[in-house]
Amino acid sequence: MSLYESAVKKPITTALIFVAVAIFGIFSLINIPIDLIPEIETNSIMVMTSYAGASASDIENNVTKPLENVLNSCEDLKHITSQSKENISIITLEFEFGIDIDVATNDVRDKLDMVESALPDDVGNPIIFKFGADDIPIIMLSVTAEESTPGLYKILDDKVANPLARVKGVGAVSVAGAAKRELKVYCDPHKLEAYNLSIEQISQIIGMENRNIPGGNIDVGSNTYALRVQKEFADASEMLNLVVGYHNGSTVYLKDVARVEDGLEERAQETFSNLKKGGMIIIQKQAGSNSVEISEKVKEKLPEIQESLPSDVKLGVIVDTSDNIIRTMNSLKETIAITFILVVFVVYAFLGRWRATFIIALTIPISLLASLMYLFATGSSLNIISMSSLSIAIGMVVDDAIVVLENITTHIERGSRPKQAAIHATNEVAISVVASTLTMLAVFMPMTMISGLSGVLFRQLGWIVSIIMIVSTVAALSLIPMLCSQLLRLNPTMGKFQKLFFVPINKGLDALDRGYGKLLGWAVHHRRSVIMLGLAVFFGAIFILGPMLKTEFFPAQDNGRISISVKLPIGTRQDITRDLALELAEKFMKKYPEITRCNVTEGAADTDNTFASMSTNGTHIMSFNIALTDMEERERGLLEICDMMRADLAEYPIIRTFQVTAGGQSGGMGGQSTVDVEIYGYDFAATDKVANDLTRIMKSYEGINEVVVSRDEYTPEYQVDFDREKLAINGLNTSTAAQFLRNRINGALASYYREDGEEYDITVRYAPEFRQSVEDIENILVYNNMGKGIRIRDLGEVKEILTPPTIERKDRERLVTVKVVCPKDKALSDVVALVNKEMKAMEIPSDIAWQLGGTYEDQQESFGDLITLMLLVVILVFIVMAAQFESLTYPFVIMFSIPFAVVGVLMGLVFTGTPMGIMAMVGLLMLLGIVVKNGIVLIDYTILCRERGMGILLSVVTAGKSRLRPVLMTTLTTVLGMVPMAIGTGTGSEMWRSMGLTVAWGLAVSTLITLVIVPTLYAVFAGNGVKNNRKKLAKRFAV
Amino acid sequence: MKAVFISYNQAYHEEIMEIMHNCGLKGYTYWDVTKGRGSFTGEPHLGDHAWPTLNGSLLIMAQDNLVPEFKKRLKALDSVSEAMGLRYFTWTIDED
């Protein structure tokens, strides 16, 4: 007994099986985590090796080069980049996507073991880091405070960071921008000198005085007492009365030579939130945990935390990655709902029966829920890719059901009983239903096998659509006949509304049938003109529209986040940076009312701030984190605002470089595209010249405001060049002298001040007013073992020099990268063309090579992968069709619909000004399977007519008239299924818009042309076939 | 005794069995899949790509008095939807 026969005969079993599928699906839906994109395992490994005291070029030659040479032999290595700077070498290994990073890590470790003995002796052990998407902070909180500012760090650390770190899944919680408390002992060098004291002595005395020491136990009478000395400072002012020495018989107190300040550490990052001073709390997640879940838990905790804080300390959210995820998911849910309604409406319009519509609509949720079971079983998440796959599939799942239901209806109308009709009618179409599903599988299954980034992304798409297609076919062959046998009636009566609605629709469709019949009749009699016209349309589109097509990688997503990093000339004082930061923040907030929160951090970070120490920081660097209102609530788009901000920043001559990053992260998925020009060459001066020339030329183009050169300028610094001979004469050595210098400027850590279980540093150093000039440094006294003080100016000289910047290398060659950010009105391909033109026009020395990297490289790679995949898919589709028709000619004829799909895609993209990106490519890929389905239906029926004895031309026209409705119906469901995606304006819609657009245009245009050109071509080929047969026969039987 | 041969669209099978039962006919020989085409009207039932429907066939030996009622009912069934296809033929047979 066949599937459909058992289904019809056992309605209860069949119904319950599908109910079970639906229940499992709903269960999965509840339990599937939500994320923005499918989990991409990190593909880079960082190797950090320190070599204290070595300069950048020493590091390059002695550490980086030998390491690179060995690491370069790692398997699946894509690029090896390195940075050699003073004291440290950082090598980043970028592997192909989809490799097992643990295996790669082991490989790297083995390689490092091999080379270790060849490195200089003082080189530290190389440290391996895996850096991935998990390290990107998921939430950033802003903190503003008034009176509590001095103690803010402690408050935040105790009351915010610690409770949050206990939330399950939260990795590191760092407090930034709030300075730590520090007890500073500021000495006056002149007084020290007068009393013959040094910083070291004072620091030692403070250390000795600030002590609690247990003295053991003592028996007094019948009791034992513990004995203690308890002399730790209870208050900072206690220090002032410490005796630090004697001079001319009188006591010298600390207050005589220094002042004590109980304040904040000197060098710290400062954060301003909406122009108010405060701090920032950065929350990172543990690897592998779900951002949305964690961020929900964190947000649940916030009100509780807020209550425990002093009333002037206010918490706010600057960045919450889950927000964007949830909004994107909601807009996708909306898209899916609209698509569902549209598809159901189309089915109803064509069939005119509620029951039939209900039966078909039922396959949609069942197939979708079944695919959710796959997501649950494989531990994947609901994300942009999986959700848009669901939306794509809605329009296609009904196709099989429609074919089956239509045939069952025909049988019922001819008088068959519903039960019998269901079995026999399904039997008739089963093969063609399976065949059309196979063509879809031929498209989507290979998608699960591609490599690279696109492979990681589209594996889910491939699986989901494949599963949905399989389930919908099974449902079409079991559930649909069963439901039809139970629900369909012969000639149901039409209600008033139905009559009102259907009579015109039916009339319209009848007219359309007749019109199409006439058109076909004309076409098959004017075959040559039709084919010439088709060719003209195709080549016209390719040659006229083709050059107008722009390309990109991924569209930039509007998630309402902007991060800006501004660099002033190296060495700019923090005060100046702060003033400018506030000025900019105020300007932005006034000019862009869309800004809800503007957070700016400047200054050098403390070393124990995990997040800040990973990003670059310094007194000359400020970084903004800006949150905008929801995309739906504002008129200006993210990129537009970013471009305007770039123009604003470009007006400040003091700013050396700036980077405005739309979406908070650059490149890859969702960020703004950049063209990275990699200039390879050994000579710094020569490559710098090319890089700077290019920067100047690119900036002269309208709209391009952001061009960043990766190599920093030479850093000015003061070096104290001690004369070894002079040191030796005075009984000193470099280390001792340098230590004296450090204690006076940077400070000596004397002891810790304890209060409420917390420890604060007590540092001793020169008061700020005594360390402001080169003379101040030269006047520093260095004491030797004899107690004699010698000034630094007598030991060496203080020189201002320029240190060379970090040496960057990629694939074992020195390079400098010029990053050009594509403005809103220019696509990636436009900027690439500009860069290519300018670089070719430039005179470049022969030993300098250049190439394009960054987004462009990723795009080219992914396009390459997808084009290979398209060829594979075309071959597979051909094979499936050839097997179905047992012919090589007919599939060839049907495949003529593919070029016209390309025409449609070109028209859609060019007319709407959308660049061709990965998503559009995937849309085109899907089209390969979708467009041939119409051809299959037409040709299949034409062949049927011929087998029933009609002539070729008559068959073509009859088949066309009879199949027009099913073709239009399945096409409309698919096209309208894509429309909500193509015109969506919700959060994240940029991502799938081009895919929807591609499929909708491609399928619409291709269907219109296919309806004429494929039957015409069939007539030509079939006619030739008949003629050839006749000739053969004539030859064989010729007398 | 009369022999009745019915060739009909498979979809009719259950209804014909019911009619037989109602007419008091018990014995039959049944071929579930037969192929054929009519001489005058109707579509062929060949189970192939062009003509996907199939026939079933029944050969019934019946008492003479039961046959007219059976034939009448079959005709009624056929006239409801002629496109489906149902033909019956009777002839007299010897009973040993």
Spans of chain B of 5+ residues with little confidence (pLDDT < 50)?
none
Radius of gyration based on Cα positions of chain B: 13 Å
How many strand units of chain A? Answer: 30
How many domains of chain B? The number is 1
Proportion of residues in β-strands of chain A = 15-25%
**Average pLDDT score of chain B:** 89
Oligomer status: heterodimer
Determine the number of helices of chain B (DSSP H or I, runs of at least 4 residues): 2
CATH architecture annotation of chain B: 2-Layer Sandwich
Q: Can you list the strand order of the major beta sheet of chain B?
A: 2-3-1-4
Please outline the major beta sheet of chain A: 9 strands, antiparallel
Overall geometric form of chain A: elongated
Helices and strands in order, then pairings?
The complex is a heterodimer of chains A (1039) and B (96).
Chain A: H1 3-9, H2 11-31, E1 44-50, H3 56-71, E2 77-85, E3 88-95, H4 101-116, E4 127-130, E5 139-144, H5 152-165, E6 170-176, E7 181-187, H6 189-194, H7 199-209, E8 212-220, E9 223-230, E10 243-247, E11 250-253, H8 254-257, E12 258-264, E13 270-273, E14 276-285, H9 291-308, E15 314-320, H10 321-351, H11 354-378, H12 384-413, H13 418-447, H14 452-477, H15 479-487, H16 496-525, H17 527-545, E16 561-567, H18 574-591, E17 595-603, H19 610-614, E18 618-628, H20 638-650, E19 657-662, E20 674-680, H21 684-699, E21 707-709, E22 715-722, H22 724-729, H23 734-745, E23 748-755, E24 758-766, H24 774-778, E25 781-783, E26 789-791, E27 796-803, E28 807-810, E29 813-821, H25 828-841, E30 849-854, H26 855-885, H27 889-894, H28 897-912, H29 918-947, H30 952-983, H31 989-1036
Parallel strand pairs in A: 7-24
Antiparallel strand pairs in A: 1-3, 1-4, 2-3, 2-28, 5-14, 5-15, 6-14, 7-12, 8-9, 10-11, 13-14, 13-17, 16-18, 16-19, 17-18, 20-29, 20-30, 21-29, 22-27, 23-24, 25-26, 28-29
Chain B: E1 2-9, H1 13-22, E2 29-34, E3 55-62, H2 67-80, E4 86-92
